[in-house]
Amino acid sequence: MKELRLNAFAMNCVGHQSPGLWAHPRDRSADYTNLAYWIDLAKTLERGCFDGLFLADVLGIYDVYGGSPAAALRHAVQIPVNDPLLLVPAMAAATEHLGFGVTCTLSYEPPYTLARRLSTLDHLTDGRAGWNIVTGYLDSAAAGMGLGTQAGHDRRYEIADEYMQVMYKLWEGSWADDAVRRDRAAGIYADPAKVQRVRHDGQFYQLDAIHLSEPSPQRTPVLYQAGASSRGRAFAAAHAECVFINGPSPQVVAPQVADLRRRAAANGRRPDDLLIFTLATVITGRSAAEAQAKQEEYRRYADPEAALALFSGWTGVDFSKYRPDDELRYIETEAMRSSLASFTSDDPDRVWTVRELAEHVAIGGRGPLFVGAPDAIADTLIDWVEKTGIDGFNLAYAVTPESFDDFVALVVPELQRRGAYKRQYAAGTLREKLFGAGRARLAPPHPAAQYRHPADG
Predict the structure, then answer these.
(1) Which distant-in-sequence residues (6+ apart) come within 8 Å of 159 by Cβ?
(2) Which of 89, 105, 217, 280 gives the lowest tally of CB atoms within 10 Å of its CB?
(3) Are 436 and 427 in contact (CB under 8 A)?
(4) What predicted TM-score, i.e. pTM, was given to this entire model?
(5) CATH code of residue 142
(6) Hey, CA dihedral for 406, 407, 411, 413, is it positive or negative?
């Protein structure tokens, strides 16, 4: 049986994927500014042998719905939102094995500075850092950076391809493996002959610099990517190690998985070079009745307007202009094209109304909602893996930390009993835990390998 991979999916904000549920009396997402909340969550996830905590992020505010940020502000639709990266060192200090995938938008930060921040994170976590590569999707972010509008959807990926070349040159090629000597007797910390300047003169980026950080345990952090459009999948097949996709049903998810595997193979990559996760939310209890009662309780706090404000921001479509019984139709935008496609063109046999969309997104966002006793949840997770070819799930919460506490206490033991989930962590860096011993560093045919320092062979 295939061993499931699991990430917890969270964000340094209120509510995240279940807009409105921050008001539930047991929800603690409003404690997001408190480090103790995040440290407790990290300890819970490590107790459950989660592979990682996947931290989402967004620059900009959701102001598409009604042409205003009012709904987002009123309902805490991923606003306020703080920097996710600053949380990780504290959580890493409180854990030993849990990985951390951090979303950083490349569109508004030079490679030179982001490379140092992520190298620093890899050092401070002893090689448990990952980077979720995103290009952004909100015009409000571009406006906040002093730009009139963001670059077009496909253009953003052209820019990202070159951005990655620069990052690989800095991480892999500036310092040789043995450049750092730490020779106290000779008074030599680093050998200048083993450190080279990175020069890049491209269409979008120019650089002439030495990487500011000495080599971290993984050099290049584990690379995550969450773009599921056709252009996003092409980018993922070339660069990503872990891919995050979304879809409300196996019928939507399975073709995305097959396409990603095909594209990766066309790039010369092996089947096990790519781990694919899909979004899901689990509500469970000691019995089916208890789980159902929780769902009914949660539904009383779900907010349809907040859900539509969130989905409008994702898609670039203003759903305030539609009636509840209007049917969804695919519209090409410069935002996240896959968000709307997964509820329309990706599954033409299922027709969604705006009301049904709002109800669905209000608990768990774009992914499926699984409700049931632990054995039924285990059945469903395993069934999705078999039907779609995914490797695991990014698990969002309905109420935090309750959703994660319940999953660790009830579902993890059931999966372990079936041999579908690990009982302990493997040794090594995050990349080694995910892909096997001896794979701490990216190797051919991944494009990063071609930029290694000449002294490293």
Answers:
(1) 106, 107, 135, 151, 204
(2) 89
(3) no
(4) 0.94
(5) 3.20.20.30
(6) negative
